[in-house]
Amino acid sequence: MLNSWVVMPTCLPVVLRRCHTCGSERFRANGKFRVNAHHKLLDAWLLVLCTSCGETAKLTVLERANVRSVRPEQLDRMHDNDPRLAAELLQDPGLRRRNHVALDWDGAWRLDTGGSDHLSGEAVDVSVRFAARIPVRPVRLIAEGFGLSRAEVERLIAEDRLVSAARLSGRLSGDFTFMLKR
After folding, report:
1. What does R_g of the chain's alpha carbons equal in angstroms?
2. Residues 12-47: pLDDT tens digits?
């Protein structure tokens, strides 16, 4: 029987960027946008607030984009300060690269195991699906899902009792499956 686990975001991640006012490295996105028009050209920014001093910084979403090239639904969502659009844009690697920022997902996600009894049976097959591109260590997910320590999960991997086609060391942000042999 295949168990399905889902890694789900619980809130927007912290944006890692240096604050020019206080030197802090953490900003919180609250889903607010600023859109500015220059005749037929648009600029749009996602506003983020410094967690230490409250200073506002802007992450460039659109820069001198022709009005006709912007989808009307996206423009409406920016005008409505849609937090889901903010979450989608923060997931965009191009936006993060263009603005020289990184994301800190600590405390911004949860693992939904479906509440099934995982440790019954000889072998347990688990499929892990990511609802968003959240980089998490598979060892941490497996430890949390089964209620084990990370050291015990590492020991299971070393003993070949925990196997996967995906690399279980490092971080993953894409779906994977694994099998735990009892």
Report:
1. 20
2. 999 999 999 999 999 999 889 999 999 899 999 999
Q: State the burial class of residue 2 (Cβ atoms within 10 Å of its Cβ: 0-12, 13-18, 19+).
A: exposed
Q: What is residue 142's three-state secondary structure?
A: helix
pTM higher than 0.90 for the full model? no
What confidence tens digit (pLDDT) does each residue in 66-101 have?
Answer: 999 999 999 999 999 999 999 999 999 999 999 999
Residues in the chain: 182
Q: Which residues lie closer than 8 Å to 89 by C-beta, 6 or more apart?
A: 46, 59, 61, 95
Edge-to-edge order in the sheet of strand 162-164: 109-112, 2-9, 123-130, 176-181, 162-164
- Are the C-beta atoms of 46 and 58 separated by less than 8 Å? yes
Cα 91 → chain centroid: 6
Q: How far is CA 119 from CA 6, 89, 122, 127, in A?
A: 18, 38, 8, 15
Separation between Cα atoms, residue 45 and residue 62, nearest integer Å: 7
- φ and ψ at residue 114, rounded to 5 degrees: 80, 0
44 vs 41: CA distance, rounded Å: 10
User: By C-alpha distance, which of 3, 4, 26, 22 is closest to 13?
Assistant: 26
